[in-house]
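Changelog-linked ticket: zinc ion example.
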Amino acid sequence: MTEAWDSRYHRQMLVEGFGREGQRRLAAARVGLVGCGALGSVIAGHLVRAGVGHLRIIDRDFLEFNNLQRQMLYTEADVTDRLPKAVAAARHLRAANSEVTVEPVVGNVDPFSIVAFAEGRDLLVDGTDNFSTRFLVNDLSVSRGLPWVYGGVIMSSGMTMTFVPGEGPCLRCVFPEIPPPGSTPTCDTVGVLNTAVGVVGSLEANEVLKLIVEPEARNRGLLTIDLRSLVFESVDIARDPDCPACGRRLFPFLEAREEETAVSLCGRDAVQIVPRPGGSVHLDQLRARLEAVGEVRANPYLVEVDVEGKTITVFPDGRAIIKGTDDISVGRVLYSRYVGQ
Ligand SMILES: [Zn+2]
C-alpha cells in the first residue's frame, strides 16, 4: 500500500467497521453495474471514488439533453458528442480515480449478454429503469448464487433491497411477476427528482460497500423512502418457498432465447431493435451508405441518420434505436430498409 493510497482513502479508513482491511477488500472487489443513467451515475461515482477495484458497466443508450438534470456523471459536451453513456461514464470515472479499472460495455442487457457481463463479478448492482432487466438479473443471481442490490426511483420516492441468494428472499419473492406495460408510472410520465435519485443511488452504493466490507451489516428489508413526506420505512419480507426463482428454480427470463428482439422504449417515443447475437455492423461502410439517404452524424461508437422523419442510431453490434415511433413494426421496417439484416 502506497502513501498516495493511504492519503486518498484516509477519511473512509477512519470509519469504524471499515479500516485498512475494508479498503483492501474493496480494492480486490469486482462489481458489475447494470445501467448507467440516473441511479447508475450516482452508484458508479461513489464506488469509484471509494476505491472499488474493478467496475464493469453496461448501458445500451446514448446521451440526450434531458438526461443532464439527474444523470450526475455527464456534461453538455457528452450530449453534443452523442456519446454512449457507458463510454462517457468510463471517461469521467477514470478522471476521478485512475486507480480503479473501469470497463464500459455499450450494449443491451439480454439473456446472452448478461452471462458474459456477470463473468468474474462478485456482485451486481441495479442502475436500470425497467423490471424486465431486473427479473433477468434476478434469474442470473439466483441461478449463479451472485448477490445483487436492487433500486428504483420515481417522482420523489424510491426503494431498494439487497439480495443474497440462499440468505433470504429474492426479487420474485417480493414481486412475483413483471408489472404489465403501462401499469406502473415511469419517470417519463410522472417525472423524477434528482435528489431522490441521489438518495436511492447512495443507498445502493452503500449496500455494495457493505456486501464487500461488512456483509453482516447489509439491509435485510425492502426499504422505501419518500423525500416529500420524509418517511423512510423498512418492511421485512420473508422468503416465499413457492417462489418461481429461488423456490422452484425456474429461470424463464434467463432461458428466453429469441433470435431477434424489438422493444418499444417506454416513454421515449423510440423502438430498439436487437439483431440475433453475434452480428456486427461495419460503421464506416454503413455511414457511407446512409449518407446517400439522409443527414448522418457519426463517432467511433455509433452512426446516426435522420430519415423518413425518424432518427436511426446504429451501434457496432448491429443494435439500433429508432426515435420518432413507438410502433415496433415501423421500427422493424426501417431497420431492414436502412441497416439491413
Ligand atoms: Zn424468491
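Closing comment: Example verified and attached. Residues 169-170, 172-173, 240, 243, 245-247 surround zinc ion (CB under 6 Å). The chain has two domains: 3-253, 259-338.
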